[in-house]
Task: structure prediction
Amino acid sequence: MDLSPEIAQALLTEATRKLGELKLYGYKPYPKQRDFHRAGADPAIRERLLKAGNQLGKTFSAAYEAAMHLTGRYPDWWDGARWDAPTVGWAASLTSQVTRDTCQRLLLGQPGSWGTGAIPKADILDIKRSAHGVADSVETVLVRHTAGSTSRITFKSYDQGRERFQGETLDFCWFDEEPSPEIYAEGLTRTQATDGIVWLTFTPLLGMSDVVRRFLVDKVPGTHVTSMTIYDAEHYTDEQRERIIAGYLPHEREARAMGTPTLGSGRVFPVDEATITESAVPIPPHWPRICGIDFGWDHPTAAAWLAWDRDTDTVHVYDCYRVKEATPAIHSLAIKAKGEWIPVAWPHDGLQHDKGSGEQLAEQYRKYGVKMLKTRATFEDGGNGVEAGIMDILDRMQTGRLKVARHLHDWMEEFRLYHRKDGKIVKECDDIMSATRYAIMMLRSASINTMREQQPRIIAFKSTVPGMGL
Result:
């Protein structure tokens, strides 16, 4: 049957309207968003942070997770947290206006077309508008759950003060943008009785704040971090990414594009990470290699493996390791697995004697078969100053003579967070940085493998990353 243009257009309009009311069913997360959701299924993880740059989809993914918990409508691919009963949750942001324009808009749609957000229109049972404050802002939404009863979500804002975040028992709490430590603590407390979950989605423009430190430095048990950069957002082309990055203020580029906390002049290595990262090529057998180790227990024991292109005096960091609360026997296995022939540079605390055995720490590693250098790490003149080592690494970074494998996420995490306070280097989350410094200090002791048949297949890296518009 032929349809008139008017009827065809009316049918298309109606179909489009219906699809707009069923957006939840079309949600397909990017890999990083999927990682963020998946972490919620781990019963040991109650606090999640999706740390990302601006306009990358962090708030979008959090809204769709909230909609699933409110409705009980989980897609077949979903491997995150689940509730088989109605839930009670909060969604909060900086101000009532910001909450309306972000959390509320993504869950309900624009005012006048509520039901076109992540919560299907048919599942919205009641909307209670805010009695005071910003126009079109909503206080509470009642949502039909597949279990046959009613979920509830309440919208809040940080400017309401800590007191407005007290009193209720919640299944989940979503903070969009970074809250104060006091408000975050209240939200977390509200979920304790139900063993519920809390998640945060923000761009860390406040630098090394207490909330950021909880996740990135202190790494409090039960916390999980997903880092999403502009290169993980698949809705941008390479050309669009470069244009967006170039449009940011220089001191905000890494925060807004990469989700890296703004540290400003406090950064130990104030260089664009795109200029030091590289992609894979085989390491030539004539490049000497060396490993550096930083001993730890409460803080991790860390190691970094370097290959040295002597022709260009370029150091390539091709592997790293970071594990805490493990013995030298365990660390030794990991170190030897990278190549027993590779010499290992170590710091002065390797001379300390173990209280139990009375042996020096470096000697214990030797007994386990690690090729520890004969003496602790020093420069050729015998010095071992931290600042001198930092300046050596920074000079290599700025002159293109230090490259780091892009996939070494632990190395890059420490690089991004390594900072000063009142001019002094903060000794937190710096274990791999220290290991790298010891290895570079002892670069003169790097060696090649003379037993080629035993040489492991190890990968080095060649720089191909596009610039960030600096």
User: Anything to note?
Assistant: The chain has two domains: 18-262, 265-462. The two ends are 60 Å apart (CA to CA). Residues 5-20 form the longest helix (16 residues). Residues 14-19, 453-470 have pLDDT under 50 and may be disordered.
